[in-house]
Design brief:
Chain lengths: 716, 500
């Protein structure tokens, strides 16, 4: 990864009393160090990528502290890493994006939580839910429940988040259970402040190694009959200790209000949104002094029955503000009140929507309706027309704008090496008809959007080949599976390739090798081009020489294996057709390589600056479109979707349609030229090579050409 | 109520929206004001929509005694919206974040077209003017200014002019000097500062909301010496002039005369006193000219070596003195393009025996030609000289037949229904492009012509038929699925009794 986290690393070094001002996820990272963590692991993914990125880059400082940092190959390997805390009193933390990462990790998590831990084991969950999410919408809460992992959902201010992280380690050690801390997208990106503490160098660590190997203790093996005992421990010991700790430490907060009829129980993570909605109806001031009583659950699992009963029993009704489905908290409290014959009504979904993020606006409506219904005598609500006022504003804007606003989903970056592959696929489809494409997670899933609109299914990270196994069994035309190198190493090699080879099945797999897990911020993979090689590659794609993917495939027994450079669109087409038409029955794999353009550009910028500074020859490439020959049918765009290949109004007064135009952001990747030839587009594309500090030969050729042409034009 | 200012930033991934948020936070912290910011970048870092939200309090607070600030922009409760792109401004307004009683809207006038808009076969762009007018009505105060342009002028990215525009509104509780402290001393910082100052000055001097002045009216040549049979409006005269010079450049002066005669012929069929008749002629003249100057191999070659081209490319790529420029043009003339320029009978024969081209290895192969190299220039010169045999070529013959048929239909409809003539004048719009695109366009054209024009043109034409024709053209332009057009034509075309 070429991105630099220099500034962030400095913030990790802050000392007692210094002020940390920065992002939520970085605050968590700092809190881990303040807690004396021994080892950290994880798998990248929004919104928690930065946690690991910063730690990986802060290698030197981590070594100084003795903190071992591991960029794991997937979440499963990260979760299993926490196994170190089963036998040793060492604190460990891992992180991933959830729900997907938790799903991958869940086998190891079940085992870990069954056995229990001695050292604090904390999992930082990036709860990728709601606006800005890139995955399926499910709750991590269910995993916490079924595996007896405690779940903290801290109030989103940095001071509180940091406290929760520190408490989580204590809670984990005291109750022998792993703890999850759920961080929502906006909380991860929250810019705030807290007072830092000194970092603690862990007592067992890479610089303070232990000589004592843990004893063999069958009770700590997740295997029967130990597992029967372990299950009992969960509910006879661990949860009781955990509840006691949560009460003693005052993890949850009770805010007392004047209203007698109703109260609210809220997940900590939604606290700010709730207060803002209450403030809008003057039920609260800006500091959270509310008229309605609130129980803020910074710990959402386990719940504390006594705490909830003593808080809620005297009200007519309590509203449970709990995002997502199923409403586990509402169910648990409802059952509790029913069993204890408490008459307070427990209400949540119904007043609040079952699905989707609880923004202040949604909470405003739900809370207002709830109060109007259950506190009939309460007249002190203001701003009750807010919802209809906002609806009016929206209607007015909609009417004025008159037509539907086209969507703007994310797409391939300028010069992305995956775009040419999909251009080739689109051309192929024109010749051989529609193809069933199992697609995958990664940058290439942007091909599911316009202008490519490819793909029939996504089944998970690295799952595409496995997902096409059934389809290929009954399809006349061979289906294809596409995965990135990230997905390939995360899961695809085993779930897909090994499984297909085991069954001797037919099939086509395309591995798009851009060299990094590009979609999550270009983290390194096992097949990431070597740093030295990257330097040598300079402006070229650095992925072409790495053979790890090919060697792994060959090692497994793949017989039909081709490698193509994606920018060679003709060759990609040819190879794809070969795979479709081949008489070879068995797995056919095409590795389509081309280095991530973001990484290439980050490397290129200083390289170019250096060349220009040293007055050395440097060739810049840019593409363009001749307006006169462009007839404005935009077929080039439908094959590309490059952000720099766009439209501009025609300057020819006779033409009305906008013409294609390449903006200054063009990085000269070459796709426009390839497509112009391969798809027989219009003859409007040109490529310009602009040579700065030309050498003598450049100058001579240039001089010679212009002299001859001048003569020619003169006498012709 | 707490005294605070809420700011919503909306931008596209990669435009520095996060940098802008951090600059604002940095200033607020320097002024010791309590501040909070959040964002949802997610995968939207890759050119999708992103948004950032900031709340700035008017005072500082002790640790542990801070107010609770919102994690989300709340509809109707945002004080400042700043947008890097016009369609995103529309999106923010649609979502209710611009409140006429509260919100100051600062928006760049620039557009980054979405793939949906760009992919359209003809023109799928969202109406920019409408967004700006909506902004005027939706915001308490609105500032529309081309911030992208300012960024490019100063070789920086749009976040710094956005920052400058905010500064100039004086809505944030610190002065310009504080704003300027965020920029570093290095080269990037200096460029950013220049972008900041440029936008600041423009907004400060009220050089914004100038959109209406920007629309460039086509220059009308007042010393028009064109002789026409009757008095016509200047804009039509202008179009005819443009058409004539285009045809002259394309072929020769007698070709320009042919164009003029054809237009005059159309004009002779109108009643100049009728309302809205001249715009129909103007559209028809434009279409006729483009049709007559269809793109073939010699035309493309001619344009590639035109005298002004190299200078234009140099400007486009920021060519500087002392550099060397090498250009490669991409060509892949297909069989149809080669047949097109053959003499008529030869072309006819080859078009029936296209397989024969398989014997020639060079046909259908891509070529890269450098128009400023000696061989490249000579080759293009040679290809362009094929225009001297254009008027006996296969394609010319085919096109002339179609042009005449359409002109006849135009004349008949000018006599009987102006509404129909209006629709018919735009029918050749479907004919454009090369290769497959051209074939598809021709297919649509002839389907519509055969279903909705040929059967009725010699009869009295009703408004319903005019509407049908208009709608068919619209379907042909907007739908990528030809079966939709087929369905429409089958339904509407069948109501008309066929005339043999």
């Amino acid at each position: 990864m070429e991105r630099s986290f220099k500034k962030e690393i400095e913030m990790l070094k802050l000392k007692e009393g210094e002020i940390f001002e920065g992002e939520g996820i970085l605050a968590v990272t700092k809190a881990l160090l303040q807690s004396g963590v021994s080892y950290v692991g994880g798998y990248q993914g929004s919104p928690v990528s930065n946690l690991l990125d910063v730690m990986v880059q802060a290698k030197e400082y981590m070594q100084e502290l003795g903190v071992h940092v591991e960029a794991c190959a997937n979440e499963s390997s990260a979760a299993a890493m926490l196994g170190a805390s089963i036998n040793y009193k060492a604190r460990g933390a891992v992180t991933w994006k959830s729900i997907v990462g938790t799903n991958v990790a869940s086998d190891a998590l079940s085992h870990l939580s069954s056995v229990g831990v001695k050292g604090g084991a904390v999992i930082i969950i990036g709860e990728d839910y709601g606006e800005g999410s890139s995955i399926i919408q499910e709750r991590t809460h269910s995993v916490a429940l079924k595996s007896t992992i405690w779940l903290l959902d801290p109030k989103p201010n940095l001071e509180n988040i940091v406290n929760c992280v520190e408490s989580a380690f204590e809670l984990s050690e005291l109750s022998n259970a792993p703890v999850m801390i759920q961080m929502r997208i906006r909380a991860c990106h929250l810019q705030g402040r807290f007072k830092a503490k000194d970092n603690i160098s862990p007592s067992i660590s890479s610089i303070k190694k232990t000589s004592k190997v843990a004893d063999h203790n069958y009770d700590l093996i997740a295997h029967p009959p130990s597992t029967y005992l372990q299950e009992k421990l969960k509910y006879e010991e661990r949860i009781i200790k955990a509840r006691q700790f949560i009460i003693d430490k005052g993890i949850n907060e009770i805010i007392k209000g004047e209203m007698q009829e109703v109260a609210i129980i809220v997940q900590g993570g939604l606290y700010n949104n709730l207060i803002c909605s209450l403030e809008a109806m003057t039920l609260s001031d800006s500091f959270g002094n509310t008229k309605v009583s609130i129980l803020v659950l910074n710990a959402v699992h386990p719940l504390i029955p006594e705490e909830i009963i003593s808080f809620g029993k005297d009200f007519n009704a309590i509203l449970i503000v709990e995002e997502g489905q199923p409403p586990y908290i509402e169910q648990e409290i409802g059952l509790l009140f029913h069993q204890r014959a408490i008459s307070t009504k427990v209400i949540g979904k119904g007043y609040l929507p079952m699905a989707g993020e609880y923004t202040s606006e949604i909470l405003f409506k739900g809370v207002r309706d709830f109060i109007v219904e259950f506190a009939k005598d309460f007249k002190d609500l203001s701003n009750t027309d807010y919802i209809s006022e906002v609806a009016d504003i929206r209607d007015k804007a909609k009417n004025l704008l008159a037509s539907e606003i086209p969507p703007r989903p994310p797409g391939f970056c300028t010069g992305c090496p995956e775009r040419p592959f999909f251009s080739a696929l689109k051309m192929i489809e024109k010749d051989i008809g529609k193809i069933h494409i199992s697609t995958d997670i990664g940058c290439h899933s942007f091909a599911t959007f316009a202008p490519f609109s490819f793909g029939q299914s996504i089944l998970g990270y690295g799952m595409s080949l496995a997902a096409s196994a059934g389809v290929q069994s009954f399809s006349e035309k061979r289906p294809i599976a596409i995965m990135g190198d990230g997905g390939f190493w995360h899961n695809g090699l085993l779930s897909g390739v090994a499984s297909r080879l085991l069954n001797g099945g037919d099939g086509i797999l395309i591995v798009l090798q851009n060299g990094y897990t590009a979609a999550t911020g270009t983290q390194d993979l096992i097949s990431t081009p070597d740093r030295n090689y990257r330097k040598l590659a300079n402006s070229k794609s650095a992925t072409e020489n790495d053979q790890k993917i090919q060697n792994a495939l060959k090692g497994l027994g793949v017989k039909w294996l081709k490698t193509v450079h994606t920018y060679n669109v003709g060759k990609v087409k040819e190879t794809l057709l070969e795979a479709f038409n081949s008489s070879f029955k068995g797995l056919k794999v095409i590795v389509a390589e081309g280095e991530c353009q973001l990484e290439r550009q980050r490397r290129l910028r200083p390289f170019r600056a250096e060349k220009l500074r040293m007055k050395k020859r440097f060739k810049r490439i840019r593409f363009g479109v001749d307006e006169e020959t462009c007839t404005g049918d935009h077929s080039c765009i439908r094959l590309s979707g490059c952000p720099t290949l766009t439209l501009k109004p025609s300057s020819d007064p006779l033409k009305v349609d906008p013409v294609a135009h390449i903006t200054d952001g063009c990085v000269g990747c070459g796709l426009c030229g390839e497509n112009a030839i391969e798809a027989t587009l219009c003859p409007s594309f040109w490529k310009a090579e602009i040579i700065s500090n030309p050498n003598k030969w450049d100058l001579f050729v240039n001089w010679f050409r212009s002299r001859i042409l001048r003569l020619f034009i003169k006498y012709a | 109520m707490l005294d605070k200012t809420s700011i919503l930033i909306t931008a596209l991934g990669g435009e520095g929206g996060g940098t802008l948020m951090n600059w604002i936070l940095e200033c607020a912290r320097k002024k010791n004001l309590y501040v909070q910011g959040t964002s949802v970048p997610g995968v939207a870092q890759r050119t999708g929509s992103t948004s950032y939200y900031i709340e700035i309090c008017s005072t500082s607070f002790e640790f542990g005694k801070e107010p609770v600030l919102s994690m989300y922009p709340v509809a109707g409760m945002v004080d400042i919206v700043i947008s890097s792109e016009l369609l995103e401004t529309a999106r923010v307004m649609e979502r209710g974040f611009v409140n006429p009683e509260r919100t100051t809207l600062i928006s760049s006038e620039s557009r980054a077209l979405t793939n949906t808009e760009k992919s359209h076969l003809y023109d799928g762009r969202f109406d920019s003017k409408n967004i700006i007018e909506t902004g005027f009505k939706m915001a308490k105060k609105s500032i529309f200014i081309d911030l992208q342009d300012i960024a490019e002028e100063n070789f920086t990215i749009i976040s710094s002019p956005m920052f400058g525009a905010i500064a100039a509104t004086k809505l944030l509780p610190w002065n310009k000097e504080v704003f300027e402290t965020v920029f570093s001393e290095d080269e990037y910082g200096k460029k950013s500062l220049a972008g900041f100052r440029s936008a600041f000055n423009k907004v400060n001097n009220k050089e914004y909301n100038l959109i209406n002045q920007k629309i460039n009216n086509t220059e009308i040549d007042k010393n028009n010496t064109l002789k026409l049979d009757i008095q016509v409006p200047d804009s039509l005269k202008n179009t005819i002039n443009l058409g004539m010079s285009r045809c002259e450049e394309y072929q020769n002066s007698s070709y320009a005369e042919t164009f003029l005669n054809r237009v005059n012929n159309l004009i002779s069929h109108i009643d100049p006193k009728e309302e809205n008749v001249f715009p129909i002629i103007e559209t028809a003249a434009k279409r006729l000219c483009l049709w007559m100057a269809y793109e073939d191999i010699p035309r493309v070659a001619q344009l590639k070596i035109s005298k002004t081209r190299i200078a234009r490319i140099k400007k486009e790529v920021n060519f500087k003195e002392g550099q060397v420029l090498v250009i490669k043009d991409y060509f892949k003339p297909g069989v149809d393009e080669i047949i097109a320029i053959m003499p008529n009978k030869l072309g006819k024969w080859f078009s029936r025996n296209k397989k024969i081209f398989k014997l020639f290895p060079f046909v259908g192969k891509g070529m890269k030609i450098n128009p400023v190299s000696i061989t490249g220039h000579l080759l293009l010169k040679l290809l362009s000289s094929f225009r001297y045999i254009r008027l006996i070529s296969y394609r010319y013959n085919e096109e002339v037949k179609e042009i005449n048929t359409w002109l006849e239909a135009m004349k008949l409809s000018l006599n009987s229904s102006l509404k129909y003539a209006d629709a018919l004048s735009d029918l050749p719009h479907l004919l454009k492009g090369y290769g497959d695109t051209l074939m598809r366009g021709k297919e649509k054209y002839s389907k519509i012509y055969n279903a909705l024009v040929r059967p009725i043109i010699s009869r009295n034409i009703s408004d319903i038929e005019a509407n049908n024709l208009k709608e068919a053209i619209s379907i042909a332009m907007n739908s990528s699925d030809i079966s939709e057009l087929d369905g429409f034509l089958l339904e509407k075309g069948s109501q008309i009794p066929a005339i043999n």
